[in-house]
User: Which sequence fits this backbone?
């Protein structure tokens, strides 16, 4: 059975802390496998929600449920302090934290205000991963690349359990990055056919480059709504991405939990073992309960 998680509405973190506590408690009680968070610094005019800070809050509140960034814009940060933050979150939720990493780039200005040339973000992310992963393993790191010059860096205590890394992104470069530097690929806005092809490519490239024995954590992320119409979902997505909903509609399930599950099921057949749903709902309770019902249906 695939695991099923839910993206916590980022607006919850703008309310009283009790709102986040209630969401975590309901999600654990409902049997969800994972809570996820996004990450932006200054997206389309300044929108943002720090993924590692939010993940730390969830990890501190949760007792059994997994926590994942989906995805964290690692290339906007220096890898050594980022590794320290990631290790802190991982130690708050030992064995239950997954680091999802992506490039961003839908808003190039977001990268620019962070001092990152959008044209170099892929190579910068590769260097970040080459530094962060051994640091999370407790190793001492010397690294001399195009973007970072590091001597004798170390992060202790290292996470008590390994931190799986999954890469988001639809490009061939993202697929190769997942194959060479991560433990899985996280799809978004792709068809089941493209999903199956992409994950196969990840594993083929890894094998060709001599990576064997990887416990692959391939997943798929869906925006969705349990409303009768896509109006609420469309408004939320258009507000965030500054693009018409038609760009996303074919990949965003809308309807009852059974209808959402029916849209998700072909991705399980295509090989997805981890599913994250990002419901846009009238209430947190409705969102959690809807995702829990999708999980129950998929398990059946």
Assistant:
């Amino acid at each position: 059975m695939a695991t099923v998680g839910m993206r916590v509405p980022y607006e919850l973190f703008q309310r009283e802390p009790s709102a986040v506590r209630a969401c975590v408690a309901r999600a654990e009680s409902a049997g969800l496998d994972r809570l996820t968070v996004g990450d932006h610094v200054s997206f389309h005019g300044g929108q943002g929600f720090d993924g590692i800070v939010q993940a730390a809050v969830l990890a501190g509140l949760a007792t059994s449920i997994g926590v994942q960034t989906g995805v964290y814009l690692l290339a906007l940060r220096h890898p050594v302090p980022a590794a320290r933050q990631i290790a802190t979150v991982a130690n708050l939720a030992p064995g239950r934290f997954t680091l999802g990493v992506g490039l961003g780039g839908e808003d190039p200005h977001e990268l620019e205000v962070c001092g990152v040339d959008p044209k170099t973000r892929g190579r910068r992310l590769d260097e970040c991963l080459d530094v962060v992963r051994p640091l999370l393993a407790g190793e001492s790191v010397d690294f001399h690349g195009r973007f970072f010059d590091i001597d004798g860096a170390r992060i202790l205590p290292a996470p008590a359990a390994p931190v799986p890394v999954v890469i988001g992104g639809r490009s061939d470069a993202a697929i190769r990055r997942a194959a060479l530097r991560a433990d899985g690929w996280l799809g978004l806005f792709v068809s089941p056919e493209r999903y199956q092809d992409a994950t196969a490519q990840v594993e083929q490239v890894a094998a060709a480059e001599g990576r064997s024995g990887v416990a692959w954590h391939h997943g798929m992320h869906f925006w969705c709504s349990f409303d009768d119409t896509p109006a609420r979902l469309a408004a939320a997505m258009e507000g965030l991405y500054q693009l018409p909903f038609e760009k996303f509609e074919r990949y965003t399930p809308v309807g009852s939990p059974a209808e959402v599950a029916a849209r998700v099921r072909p991705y399980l057949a295509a090989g997805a073992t981890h599913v994250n749903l990002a419901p846009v709902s009238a209430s947190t309770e409705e969102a959690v309960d809807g995702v829990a019902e999708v999980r129950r249906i998929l398990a059946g």
Q: What stands out?
A: The longest strand covers residues 66-72. DSSP finds ten helices and twelve strands in the chain. The two ends are 9 Å apart (CA to CA). The CA atoms of residues 196 and 270 lie 5 Å apart.
